[in-house]
């Protein structure tokens, strides 16, 4: 039996960063957020509620609820994700169980500073875990299920689900400032997770005007492995025909495009614009929920069937 070294290396790297991500999350939560008795989103929030009311450690409640969610999500997110999430959920419970007894007070004396630092670290950890095909569990699992079926970002879906948990904390503890702190953490976690996850997916659009457009287009095809679209226009001042190149690429590839243009034509006129999303070959997959196709009525259908077809056509 031969071992694929590249696959082994990639898997080992994924699990290393899953461990690192959940450790960062657990440290941020236990060292900065939990000592302030702030209920955040996700299962950590429910674990905090149980801990503050019964004294049961957060790690135990978090792990039990994670197992229930994973059992529900197995068919949607797939076996590989569930395995990575099960591992991540186990490790985060281990790290939370280790860190919680070590930090009875926040590492700073300013509650708001603890909240900001803790939320930033937690979001960084979640984002790192998702990038490497894992999850820290909790509402991350729900967010991943929704992200499989639509273009709603993981961080945004976490925001929708977690806001309920934080809102309920006010009715349990009746502390408005703690609830506000919980929403601050929620915003920071969602924002940081999106930044980490989608940094490499950000795209830009180049519009290039140059007399050497053929050389530039060929170089972009060969050196940057990106396609070009050639449009024909007319310069209104010169009244002459011009060629315009339109190029889509990842944001991290924009420097390569600029270098290619500069090496061929110093006088090229170039614009660069951020693009909210690029979908298709070479970019992200377009994930939308399609409406089911209605079956055409057979010949034995009632006389009302032709009227229904005409009504649909008119719409």
Describe this protein's structure.
- This protein is α+β, with helices and mostly antiparallel strands and 315 residues long.
- It has helices at 5-33, 42-54, 58-77, 79-99, 111-131, 139-149, 154-173, 176-198, 213-223, 254-264, 305-314, and strands spanning 203-209, 228-235, 240-250, 269-275.
- Strand 2 and strand 3 (240-250) form a beta hairpin.
- Helix 1 runs parallel beside helix 4, helix 2 (42-54) runs parallel beside helix 7 and helix 6 (139-149) runs antiparallel to helix 7.
- It is elongated and about 80 Å long.
Briefly characterize the structure:
The protein has 315 residues and is an alpha+beta fold. It has helices spanning 5-33, 42-54, 58-77, 79-99, 111-131, 139-149, 154-173, 176-198, 213-223, 254-264, 305-314, and strands at 203-209, 228-235, 240-250, 269-275. A four-stranded antiparallel beta sheet has the order 2-3-1-4, with helices on one face.
């Amino acid at each position: 039996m031969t071992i694929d070294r590249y696959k082994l290396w990639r898997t080992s790297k994924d699990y290393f960063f899953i461990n690192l991500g959940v450790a960062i999350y657990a440290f941020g939560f236990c060292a900065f957020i939990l000592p302030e008795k702030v209920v955040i989103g996700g299962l950590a929030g429910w674990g905090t509620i149980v801990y503050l009311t019964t004294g049961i450690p957060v790690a135990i409640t978090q792990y039990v609820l994670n197992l229930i969610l994973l059992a529900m999500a197995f068919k949607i997110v797939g076996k590989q994700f569930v395995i990575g999430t099960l591992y991540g959920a186990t490790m985060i419970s281990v790290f939370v169980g280790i860190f919680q007894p070590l930090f009875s007070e926040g590492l700073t004396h300013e509650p708001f500073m603890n909240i900001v630092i803790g939320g930033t670290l937690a979001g960084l950890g979640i984002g790192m875990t998702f990038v490497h095909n894992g999850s820290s569990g909790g509402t991350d699992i729900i967010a991943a299920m929704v992200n499989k079926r639509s273009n709603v970002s993981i961080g945004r879906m976490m925001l929708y689900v977690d806001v309920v948990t934080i809102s309920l904390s006010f009715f349990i503890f009746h502390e408005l400032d703690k609830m506000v702190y919980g929403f601050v953490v929620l915003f920071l976690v969602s924002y940081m997770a999106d930044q980490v996850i989608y940094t490499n997916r950000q795209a830009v659009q180049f519009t290039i005007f140059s007399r050497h457009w053929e050389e530039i287009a060929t170089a972009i095809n060969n050196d940057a492995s990106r396609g070009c679209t050639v449009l024909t226009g007319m310069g209104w001042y010169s009244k002459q025909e011009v060629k315009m190149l339109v190029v889509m690429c990842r944001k991290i590839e924009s420097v390569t495009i600029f270098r290619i243009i500069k090496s061929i034509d110093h006088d090229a006129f170039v614009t660069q614009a951020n693009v909210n999303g690029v979908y298709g070959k070479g970019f992200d997959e377009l994930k939308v929920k399609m409406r089911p196709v209605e079956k055409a009525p057979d010949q034995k259908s009632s006389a009302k069937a032709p009227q229904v077809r005409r009504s649909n056509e008119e719409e």
